[in-house]
Amino acid sequence: MDDYLVLTVSGLDQSGTTAGVTRILSNYPLVITQLQQIVLQGELVLGLTLKKHAHIDNEEIQKDVESFVQPRGMTVRVATSKQGQATTELQLLVTVLGNPLTPGAVAAITGVIAGHGANIDRIRQIAEYPVTAIEFEISGASQENLRSALADVARANSIDIAVQRASLDRRGVHLVVLDVDSTLIRQEVIDILARFAGVEEQVSDITHRAMNGELDFAESLNQRVSLLAGLPVSALAEARSEIQFTPGAATLCRTLHRLGFHVALVSGGFSEIVTPLAAELGVVNVRANHLDVVDGLLTGKLNGEIVDRSGKAQALQDFAERFGVPMSRTIAVGDGANDLDMLNAAALGIAFNAKPFVRDRADSALTSPYLDTILYLMGINRAEIEQADSQDATR
């Protein structure tokens, strides 16, 4: 005997449908093992898997449910199955962001998933703007193999795809650590200072080589800072006035704070610039380098330990320990080679508009110009973001 009954109701969404269907099913010796419902553009699909505890006439159940749904213009399908429980295989979340997201791209994604022998257990829309964001919950595939295959699909379709484990850690309080230059903000601060000092070309060349992994970051930073010797400290305030936040930066930080998450900025740049920027976003946790100043002029040296590639990873761990957040709930975001240790140390490392060298080595990569799309990779949907905004507006 087939032990499970699978019932699907579809049609124009109307209030009381789920209540009516389950009330009818309560007259039979059935136990619900799975229940899912979705409404798309006013059309409802309600699905139930029920375990039988005695022999049941499927046709009788179908007629009973039809007597309720047909007057509502809906249909019902009843089938039997020997399998009723959700899979115990590794669950993965495949988050897709596109602007636009085309049917061809979705066909390529789902084709790769099927080609890896995986099953799509659930599809959820997270956002319609500023990008279309869709989350696929799948089972039966290797994370690394699937991530590699979908990376090719992402490049071919100019979309972003992230593959991560679906775990309970996703639901707890998180620590999100952000790089600053070319991540939180659109500029490289040292390039602005170099322009004021008249050494823009020399500094830009060193910056480019360092961010692509061709130079050791600490050495390159010392070289660039040495070129700033003699620059008046007043130039720092002037540089701050030129800085622009990446679109979505304020929304990201505001939403994370309202959800009770911890946010930190970890930068290979300068605390004299980063700390005031952090304050504008309500962020108090900062780790960055300190410029040496004598008689109101930059000396071309740094004070204290340099926040370099390994220093950023250490900062992530230090902040996690301070806040009592397990490393399994840490997220790091950056764009340069000096961010890689931090990205790899975090449970989820996101390369944001990063250089190819970094993008190919990070867990996930985003090419969207909006920093708040990071929220979608965390499973936070657009409605939740807007709800948080509306609650703040009423205070």
TrEMBL record:
Protein name as it appears in the record: phosphoserine phosphatase
Protein family (similarity comment): Belongs to the HAD-like hydrolase superfamily. SerB family.
InterPro entries for this protein: ACT-like_dom_sf, ACT_dom, HAD-like_SerB, HAD-like_sf, HAD_sf, PSP, PSP_ACT
Gene Ontology MF term list: L-phosphoserine phosphatase activity; magnesium ion binding
E.C. no: 3.1.3.3
NCBIfam families from the UniProt entry: HAD-SF-IB (TIGR01488), serB (TIGR00338)
Start and end residues of each ACT domain: 94-168
Biological source species: freshwater metagenome
